[in-house]
Amino acid sequence: MTAPATTGAPGTAVKSLYVYxxxxxxxxAPRSPGVDGARVRLLTGSGLCAAVSDAPARLLPRRRDLxxxxxxxxxxxxxxxxxxxxxAVLSPRADTxxxxxxxxxxxxxxxxxxxxGCVELxxxxxxxxxxxxxxxxxxxxxxxxxxxxxxxPDYEANVRLGEALALGVRREARRAAREVxxxxxxxxxxxxxxxxxxxxxxxxxxxxxxEDEGRFRKAVDAGARAVGGRLALSVTGPLPCxxxxxxxxxxxxx
Amino acid sequence: xxxYDDEVVCAPRAGTLYDVLELILDRGMVIDVFVxxxxxxxxxxxxxxxxxxxxxxxxxxxxxxCNRLDLEHDVRSKTVPExxxxxxxxxxxxxxxxxxxxxxxxxxxxxxxxxDDSDDADDADDTxxxxxxxxxxxxxEERSERPRGRSSGRSRAEEDRPRDRPRRRPRRxxx
Lengths: 254, 175
Description:
- The complex is a heterodimer.
- In chain A, 41% of the residues lie in helices and 23% in strands.
- By secondary structure, chain A is an alpha+beta fold.
- Chain A folds into 2 domains: 5-116, no CATH class; 119-243, Alpha-Beta Plaits, CATH 3.30.70.
- In chain A, strands 1, 2, 3, 4 and 5 form a 5-stranded antiparallel β-sheet that branches.
- The model of chain A is unreliable at 1-14 (pLDDT under 50).
- The longest helix of chain B has 16 residues, at 97-112.
- Chain B: Gas vesicles are hollow, gas filled proteinaceous nanostructures found in some microorganisms. During planktonic growth they allow positioning of the organism at a favorable depth for light or nutrient acquisition. GvpA forms the protein shell.
């Protein structure tokens, strides 16, 4: 199999290392197989460990590789604080990686301290379209519009009615999302909003102390009961703290 | 993607790999001297993950569902036979027999409940807390007995199965 052009610079395909995450020194190597089934090992230096494996010749966001990345990080996170890497971060060579750890050590240790004892919980909320029926019955102007459209049905009127209903359920879902955020944010150390769209109106990660996870989940349950007719909630976690590490360490020497 | 049943989702769904894709791909640390492989396919994945729903087609489906609603009668005077024959229940049928059955069960429970609190749940925020809480708790418990309940959500790898998908993206059932 030839390496595709997407694997980057020449030479990276064979010798480079796939980097999973950085932890304090002194942890066990994860047993979960890494990306492409590779064995995961630890590189230790400057009081830190980097979990790495040989990079596959061909790296694609395949489902099993995303799951492997996640499984390795889960195993590392179970042992203590972890700075998770994004999927598909490679280091050209082991010595480059160790040099980088040495120059960034203060910054990396500070970040590790910030996520120590914490997990990430991701909460998403999607619009419940069926809420339109409640809206029509409750909102006089929508009801009037619906009855008028029924008496004189035509294409334009139906589009106008449908648009008003779509806006209505989305507005209600967004309002519900704010209520949920207000409930959950006080229970978290930090919160980080993600991208939302017209269907998924809530997507926020929370940095939660591990001992508060149960309380947080109860609050999500209560939130789901309170807003369930308008907003369908999902919660994912505990996750490695993807959203609460700085994407790039400060340049060395600053 | 859009179904128009009036199902109330009282228990949070457990997340899947799909739910954390953006975190794995867009968050987490990157180190400058490292190479981040450019991944053909990621853009496609993400486009797939965020389907745009605001379209005339969506509006027309909303309007169609609305035109089948019984708006002439007061909601509170619903009866069981009326509910079974109601246009909303029929429209649910398009999304699959299972959903219909569940939705009908919910409807029957709503109708039989002493307080018809599902229709004015939003109005009840400050004035009617007790009946609403009681009803919501009952439903939540029943739902949590289902396989997708929260208690099974801890293991992401195991949870990452397609059965969770239709809940949020019901249209895929039609595909």
